[in-house]
Amino acid sequence: MFLTDTLTKTSLSDRLGRVIPLTNGINLARQSISGLLVAKSDLFFFVVVSLIWFLLGVLIFGYTEKKVRREGTLNFY
């Protein structure tokens, strides 16, 4: 709620919102639906941030999967 423009925006929430793909995607979709032009730089930034989050998720998942297999604790999750 604080980062998706549901509540009042501050400069900190605006900066944090740009690195959260959902928030940035909503803002880009709003601009597009409103008939405003979406800057290529904003779209490029959105794609890059989304790829970073995706790769981070894959790395964390791989790490935890190896740890669970090594410890034999798969049934606990």
Rg over CA atoms: 17 Å
What proportion of the residues is helical, as a percent range? 55-70%
Total number of helical segments? 3
Number of strands: 0
Note the gap between the termini. 29 Å
Characteristics of this structure?
77 residues; mainly alpha; elongated
Describe the fold and architecture.
With 77 residues, the chain is mainly α. It has helices at residues 11-18, 21-33, 40-71. The protein is elongated, with a radius of gyration of 17 Å. The mean pLDDT is 83.
Short description:
By secondary structure, this protein is an all-alpha fold. It has helices at 11-18, 21-33, 40-71. Helix content is 69%, strand content 0%.
Mind sketching the topology for me?
Layout: H1 11-18, H2 21-33, H3 40-71
Helix pairs in contact: 2-3
